[in-house]
Amino acid sequence: MCQQVDNNTKNKKGKHLNYEERLSIERWWNRDKKSKVEIARLLDRSEKTIRNEIKRGLTINLTSELIEIEVYSADIAQAKYDYNLSGKGPELKISNHHKLKKFIETCIKEERLSPEAIVALPDFKAFDVEMCAKTIRNHIDLGCIYDIKPEDMIYNKKPKVKNPKKTICSKIPPEKSITNRPKEVDTREVYGHWEGDLVVGTRKKGAVLFTLTERQTRQEIIVKLPNKTATEVAKALDKIERKYKGNFSEMFKTITFDNGAEFRDWRSLEKSYDGRRKKPRTCVYYAHPYCSGERGSNENSNRLIRRFIPKGTDITPISEEFIQYIENWINNYPKRFLTIKALTKNWKNYVHKKPEIYYCNLQN
Which of 12, 24, 38, 225 could form a disulfide with 232 if both were Cys (CB 3.0 to 4.6 A apart)? Predict the structure, then answer.
């Protein structure tokens, strides 16, 4: 009998290299010094496959003379292959079960049965495959059952398309992190470094309060906004800049915010409303996520606001006069780190000046 020496049958497209083939590549590439084209011809593979495989398994070895050389290792290449294969996930239950595929196709196209009815048939249970109706629908959506399309299904349910997010948060650059903030801010010895946040009434809709707290003196500024968007926050800073005009940059050297979407547009927050001004009006920094203690002064001031506006209260009907009253109340509130004696006289005279017109439902 004549033995066939050269097998000219082409390998199936997409078939992966096995460990025996990797050992052959290791021998031919390291010892016999064969080229990638020769190895591809010997294994009946494409040159690109061999080139990628050798690149995957390259490693550095030491010779007996302690010289580093680059060689191909079949073990390293196989380990990388197995690791990458672990992320593929389990095989589909119906992937290689051709008889089950044919049975499902017949039931849906000819018998007009739904997947729920198919899994209840005795003939289906005879295949001894644990599968629910949802799994059959998933296989059809993935195209694993070739002759069935989603349009052929009875009561085909189209998946709901989620609305795209309206707010796209820009990534905060590393230089805007609180770790890069000037060291003088931490000592509280210089005036002009502020912390900012939003006080929300109802979670869904409604107005919010934009609050700024100066770190040295605990001076408070409260601005009512119609909603919690980045545009409205930038407009609030524009309003404050118009109030202080040329002194704004001196009074607001830095502002530290949290990582909320309404504060992410740092360029708009730093840009002056006056187009003739080229330099930034202030410098914005961001605290670390879930570290409200890095903005403790502002958080404590917001707690004082909650004495008048509890959580869940709709801020929209609250008058500007009452918000101004809260701001003045906080700015005149006796604080331990300040000289309490100097504030006591003004405090006693001030606390009785509550505005007559304000949101009376707060007391209900």
Answer: 225
